[in-house]
Design brief:
This protein is mainly alpha-helical. It is built from nine helices and five strands. The chain is globular, with a radius of gyration of 19 Å.
Length: 259
Amino acid sequence: MAVTRTLSVAILLSAITACSTSPTGRNQLIMFSDQDMAQLGAQSFEQMKQQQKISTDNKTNAYVRCVTDSITRHVPPQSSFKNWEVVVFDSEQVNAFALPGGKIGVYTGLLKVAKNQDQLATVIGHEIAHVLADHSNERLSSSQLANAGLQLGSAVLKDKEYHDSAMGALGLGVQYGVLLPYGRTQESEADIVGLELMAKSGFDPNQSVDLWKNMAKASGGNQPPELLSTHPSHSTRIHDLEAKIRTLPLTQVKAPNCQ
C-alpha cells in the first residue's frame, strides 16, 4: 500500500512539474492559481503596512516609485491584478520584496547600499522577477506537499489554520515583519530575469555588479559559505551577472532621471 501511494505521488508530482516551467525553462511545482496567490499577497501586504512604519518623505517615495514605474511598464500585463503598488518602509533593513498581486516593498536602508537608480533598479527588477517566475507559488506548493500531503488546488486555502501558514510561506513572516529566504536556484533565476528586465527598461546592467560589491562590503564579510546558505555567494552572483551582461541585447529605451 505504501509503495502504491509513493508511486502515485511520484506520478502526480511529475505530471504537475511537467506542466509548469519558469522563465528560464526550469520545471516547477505549481499547485495554486494566480488569483489565490494574488489574494494572499495582498493580505500579507496590508498586514505589513499596518505593522511597519511607512516613509512619508516625498522625495524618497518619488524616487523609488520613479524607478519602479520605469520597470513595471515593461512587464507584460498580469491576469491576477492590474496595477503594481509600491510602499517605502522607514527602516534600516537593507532589503526589498515583491509579492504576488503586484505588491512591492522597499526599505529605506537599502538606499544606503544601492547608491544610484541603476543599482536600485537591479534590486527592484530582481524582486519583480520572483513574482513573474511564480517563486512564492513554487515554495508554497512544495511546503504543502511536505507538510499537508497531496491536497491539491485552492480548497486547502479556505482552511484558516493552513491559510495563516500559507501567508508565511509566501516569503513574509508577517508576525515578525521579516522576509523568509528563497532557495539558491530561485535567487539565481531572479538575478538573471531581473537583470534582463532592468536592462530592457533602460538602466545600466553593469551597475548590478557594483550593487553586489556594495552588498559584500555592507555585510562586512559576515556571509556563510555558499553551500550552507540559501543565497548564492556574492562572488558567484557577480560572476553570473557578468556572464549574462555580455549576452544582453542593446536597447533603445532610456531610463528617466529619477534622482
